[in-house]
Design a protein that fits this description.
Elements lengths: L4 E2 L5 E2 L7 H31 L7 H12 L8 H4 L2 H19 L6 H31 L30 H14 L9 E7 L5 E7 L3 E2 L11 H12 L1 H4 L3 H28 L8 H33 L4 H12 L8 H25 L5
Antiparallel strand pairs: 1-2, 3-4, 4-5
Helix pairs in contact: 1-4, 1-12, 4-5, 5-9, 9-10, 10-12
């Protein structure tokens, strides 16, 4: 068996040179698929809460409303598209392990080696994962069964109780609302498919009626159409070019690079501590990995959630200005916007940290190279 470096404690540290790469690239994605399937629903709820906070009364209500109005399968909207990222996951791991190997040459502590390697891995992987994230998130917020994104307009028929209360958002807000309505009802705002007309009602106010083709009435917002990943990607490319597929790229870099660095650094520091603590010497290694991974996930989630909120809003709403998104979020929720979706994110990140690192360490041990 190939030589394996020994950490300051008793546990073995399996390095990049100790791994059978063919095994790693087969077993790794298989484990990753199971982990994604387990953790995807909280990711979907987190995305909806960050973009459409006013539509739900907390994390539990969001879960309940999605299942009640759209069915259990709605918790996996965009999951097949997200699974394209399995290949990107191998790019991430490869970059992490190679970067950590080279960082060790500078005599860095395990915490700093992990920090540098985690940042490098995320920087490289974002070049590939952002288009997948953009399409996946647009699928996540489709067909909400009556729930709109934050302030998104809905197509309604005028009634005596509502006709006398017209809403007149600013022009800038109208543009944003129309865009998020297009996300909620993909295809509804495509200029070649549909246009909106204002029709007077009996009270003299106006209502919005959507027409398509020869002027036939379109479906109301209560029955939104759902587009496939291919249709969404094609529309983004047709209307915005490659930039449409890389919405919020720099916001993703500013979110995931520090998040990845903080996660791996926290894990490295915590794991090193457990190896030096004699009271924990009898604890099974998988439990140590799980506890350190969960704690690292909690730290990374809490420290980077505001950045994640801005990134999600930019990618779903199509905004090109992170500062403009921050200003709007502040007007809507004050400082509370920084905690949007944080519980759902923790619900995803904490178990994910335990499952991912335990699975990864297991995969590494299964992929140890033999002479």
């Amino acid at each position: 068996m190939a030589s394996i470096d020994i950490d300051a404690g008793q546990q073995q540290v399996i390095g990049w040179d100790d791994l059978d790469k063919r095994k790693l690239y087969v077993i790794g994605p298989a484990f990753s698929l199971g982990v994604r399937a387990l953790l995807y629903p909280p990711m979907l709820i987190k995305t909806r809460l960050q973009v459409q906070n006013c539509a739900y009364n907390g994390t539990a209500d969001a879960f309940r409303q999605v299942v009640k109005q759209e069915g259990f399968r709605a918790l996996y909207k965009g999951f097949p598209t997200n699974c394209i990222g399995l290949g990107v996951g191998q790019v991430y791991i490869t970059t992490y392990e190679v970067s950590r190997k080279h960082a060790a040459k500078f005599g860095l502590s395990h915490g700093w080696m992990n920090f540098v390697a985690g940042a490098a891995a995320s920087t490289v992987s974002q070049c590939f994962i952002v288009p997948i994230d953009v399409v996946t998130q647009l699928q996540m917020v489709q067909g909400q069964g009556g729930h709109a994104s934050s302030g998104a307009p809905t197509v309604r028929t005028a009634s005596p109780s509502t006709a006398s209360q017209p809403v007149s958002p600013s022009k800038q807000e109208q543009r944003r609302l129309l865009h998020t309505d297009a996300v909620r009802q993909p295809g509804a705002a495509l200029p070649e498919m549909q246009q909106q007309q204002q029709l007077p009602n009996k009270s003299g106010s106006s209502t919005v009626q959507s027409t398509t083709g020869g002027g036939a009435a379109a479906q109301s917002s209560s029955t939104p159409q759902v587009q496939t990943a291919r249709q969404i990607a094609a529309h983004l490319y047709r209307t915005e070019g490659v930039r449409g597929l890389y919405r919020g790229y720099f916001a993703s870099i500013l979110t995931y690079v520090p998040s990845s660095a903080i996660w791996w650094a926290s894990y490295g520091v915590l794991y090193s501590y457990t190896q030096s603590a004699s009271a924990l010497s009898s604890v099974p290694t998988p439990l140590v990995h799980a506890a350190c991974g969960s704690s690292a996930g909690l730290v990374a989630s809490l420290t980077t959630n505001p950045l994640d909120v801005v990134r999600t809003c930019m990618q779903v709403e199509g905004s090109r200005s992170g500062w403009a998104v921050v200003q709007r979020l502040w007007r809507e929720d004050g400082h509370r916007w920084m905690a949007r979706g944080v519980m759902a994110r923790i619900m995803s990140a904490v178990p994910a940290g335990a499952v991912i690192i335990t699975s990864y360490e297991t995969v590494k041990r299964l992929c140890i190279r033999t002479s």
